[in-house]
Amino acid sequence: MPINFFKHLAVHNDDHILRIAPLEHLKEIVEGFYVFKAGYRVERELFFNDGYPVIALMQNRNENVSVSIDGHMKSVGNAWVCGGVLRNTYCESGLDFQDCFVIRFYAVTFFKLFGINEDYFHQKQVFDFSEIAGYGFEQFEEAYYHGSSLEERMKITVRFLSEKVNTYSYPKVLLDIQKYIDRRGNLTVRDVMDGYAVRLNYKWLERNFKKHLGISPQNYLLIRRFLNAYIDLDSLTSKELLEIAIDNGYYDDNHFIKDFRRFSGVPPKTYFSRSKGAKTDKENYAK
């Protein structure tokens, strides 16, 4: 997803995002349905994922998204999936994401729902939804884009997902651990093991994160740390870069800059100076 989606998601009651709660029978599968109402065009938008796989559908059928992954261009169509750890990935389409419809899934159930392996996102992180949607996708897409209202499109989406729900087992405590990490923010694996209400075994945590979420606990904590620091930096507070880094669990500002390069391909100063409407205050944060 465009990283600004998560910036608005982090602010409760943000006017740029409308959240629709899932129906009871989908609550263990879908974290929420969202309409991204940011409505501003960015020529080159950084893509990111916060550990919750998403399926995004553009407002109009003819809005096809192209992404650059480490400099290699790829078209992912008007309905696409985003998950795993994204590095140096940008939307190059120059599209307005006004009213983009986003389905945010729990990873522990996402893989089972679409019948894919838990390491699927190791191979590709952004791709056309048709690659995994399975039976009924063409009818779903046709009906969705003929829907004339959000309510109608919601019903079509819920019906499509409901037809895929099967009975399967997974350690339900993983959902609670994931929510615990999201609430607490700056944590290490040791903090999770020591602070969570139930005693955890490291090998169990490592094995089940990889098996059911498709990502190691270390990588999950890493992407959450970067996202929190990015939002902090983007908020144009009076904090210095070093203070932002320390507040979000980095050793120092160089540690944060190194991570910023890992995810965006460039240091913060270059990234924000390229962003449309970037403020000069942000440039002073970076080296």
Automatic annotation (TrEMBL):
The record's PROSITE patterns line, in alphabetical order, gives: HTH_ARAC_FAMILY_2 (PS01124)
Under SMART domains, the record lists: HTH_ARAC
GO molecular function list: DNA-binding transcription factor activity; sequence-specific DNA binding
Q: In the UniProt record, does the keyword Transcription occur?
A: yes
Q: Which InterPro entries match?
A: AraC_XylS_family_regulators, Homeodomain-like_sf, HTH_AraC
Q: Where is the HTH araC/xylS-type domain?
A: 205-274
Top-rank taxon of the source lineage equals: Bacteria
**Which residues constitute the signal peptide according to the record?**
none
Put simply, this protein is called AraC family transcriptional regulator
Q: Which organism is it from?
A: Arcticibacter tournemirensis
